[in-house]
Amino acid sequence: MVTSGPVVIGLDNGGTMNNATVLDASGAFVVDRLVETPSLVREGPAVAVDALVRATDNILELTGIARDQVLAVGLDTPGPASADGVISSKGSTNFANAQWRGYDFRGALQERLGIPVVYNNDGNAAALYAHFVYFGADAARNSSISAIIGTGLGGGVIESGQVVRGAAGMAGELGHVTIPMDGLLEDGQPMPDCNCGLSGDAESVASLTGIEKNLLPYWLTRFPGHTLAEVPGGKAAKLVRGHGEDGDDLAMKIFEQQAMALGRLFNIAANFTDPGAYFVGGGVVEAKPHFRQWFLDTVRANTALRDEQREVAAFALVPDLDMAGARGAALAALETMSVA
Fold first, then answer.
1. Interval 86-121: pLDDT, tens
2. Does residue 32 contact residue 2 with C-beta atoms inside 8 Å?
3. CB-CB neighbours of 71 under 10 Å
4. Is 7-128+322-339 assigned to CATH 3.30.420.40?
5. 38, 115, 183, 324 — which has fewest CB within 10 A?
6. What is the model's pTM?
7. 138-318 maps to CATH 3.30.420.40
8. pLDDT, tens digit, for every residue of 126-170?
9. In sequence order, which residues have a C-beta less than 8 Å from that of residue 188 and are 6 or more positions away?
10. Where are the alpha helices (DSSP H) in the chain?
């Protein structure tokens, strides 16, 4: 699909790759597949900004779109960062290089491109895309909340079709909401710790890091002789999903606890925002259909909604997960240009 009219570009900046897409003024995506180039974020800000410029040039060349057709660029990155794209002064997993601390990522890219850049964190961008795909023309009249399981637990809150960013731009950091652990943890199971310094937050259970640090070490003591006991921790954590797809008892216990954690997180959200839809994303979306449906059903079963809420609330998976960030970033950019 080629367009001669105005467009926006969406750039999803990840730990290893940048994903780019193009959205035309009518809201149709010009690119229907994943288009990736190296992100090089571990090499520091200057190299990473250069990489995003190359990702922009690459998607324009691929689609045959002229640079002067581009109204704006939507950029998303992992957090924590401010609402205007300044990386946290404490850094983060993806931005461990000290030069990233307090770096104005959005501003630097805008200066290099000479095009307005609109920023969202990656959880918010994916949440926005899920919201618009699910609600379509009714997106502006609905609300939703998304929890996206990755290395950490990302998320986003959408109200009346708009991302809720908060005063410092850090709203929707769902992973660091403390959840009740009574009945979720087994007798004698240690309270899980999060890399953020909290104990018992949602990310300490529902994340790849939570599996590696907290869940897998415990459940290996309950399943002596399990094959994962012979595998180094980080690699073993990544293998748990495959075992879950095969119905392995240890893996199913881990994913049941993760689903319970998301259910309890959603129950807290229900009492704050009462959203019309609850979306689940992350690696579980990329799993085999029978497993991801079981996981979503288990999340739903552990979300203690009132009868009135249950009648109107939907539970769904984030669609097109590998493209959701870039597409959500593009949607946010188009919305900003439409309002301006």
1. 998 876 667 878 899 999 999 999 999 999 999 998
2. no
3. 20
4. yes
5. 183
6. 0.89
7. yes
8. 999 999 999 999 999 999 999 999 888 888 999 999 999 888 777
9. none
10. 45-63, 105-113, 122-135, 208-210, 216-222, 233-245, 249-272, 289-301, 307-312, 321-339
